[in-house]
Write a sequence for this structure.
């Protein structure tokens, strides 16, 4: 069974940092591109970042470019999102996703809530 | 950035009825259009990829059509579990973008 399990969310002050992790199991993680998608409370879905299978290529939404970093450790089947200089507007549930084919999201984790507030 | 506009924002229907949801792109996305279903407090679920291909395990009552800028998700006969929010997403250009969603509610 495919599983993606996020962790690392929580309450952080504006300007602070958090590192999200996503543990993958039940499939060949190293063969899938991986992404983070977020959803602010009561709002729609927003793509955040994508990393290629080997980690050599990354893309970011303009709203997080320069503040967030995506990485992966295929030996540990884990995806990461390092979030720096956090703002109130980064408050959202962050979903870990994978892409087996094109850049769409066929597997999703349950999400981890990040709240940026003083 | 490609903007996806979904309509209607809310659709009120009864079980057994046919649902037609629309997604319009601000420029051509070819067939690089997917649909997701999201129920309250759950992660989204992939329904349709490549504009018209059902994902694994998706019932045949769900179908997708369209290409270029105009796309449709059709649910032929609504089941109680189909009442949810539906999103379209394009992946032809960066940044990846989603529509704002259509809420399918019980009438």
């Amino acid at each position: 069974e495919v599983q993606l399990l996020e962790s690392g969310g929580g309450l952080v002050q504006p300007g602070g940092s958090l590192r999200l992790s996503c543990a993958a199991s039940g499939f060949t993680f190293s063969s899938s591109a991986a992404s983070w998608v977020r959803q602010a409370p009561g709002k729609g879905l927003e793509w955040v970042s994508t990393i290629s299978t080997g980690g050599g290529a990354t893309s970011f939404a303009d709203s997080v470019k320069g503040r967030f970093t995506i990485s992966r450790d295929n030996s540990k089947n884990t995806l990461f999102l390092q979030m720096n200089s956090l703002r109130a507007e980064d408050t959202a549930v962050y979903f870990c996703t994978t892409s087996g084919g094109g850049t769409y999201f066929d597997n999703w984790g349950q999400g981890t809530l990040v709240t940026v507030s003083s | 950035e490609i903007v996806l506009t979904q309509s209607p924002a809310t659709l009120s229907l009864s079980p057994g009825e046919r649902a037609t949801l629309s997604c319009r792109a601000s420029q051509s996305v070819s067939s690089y259009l997917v649909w997701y279903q999201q129920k309250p407090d759950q992660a989204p679920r992939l329904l349709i990829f490549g504009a018209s291909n059902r994902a694994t395990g998706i019932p045949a009552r769900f179908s997708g059509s369209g290409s270029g800028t105009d796309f449709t998700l059709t649910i032929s006969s609504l089941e109680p579990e189909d009442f949810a929010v539906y999103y379209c997403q394009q992946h032809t250009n960066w940044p990846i973008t989603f529509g704002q969603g259509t809420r399918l509610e019980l009438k």
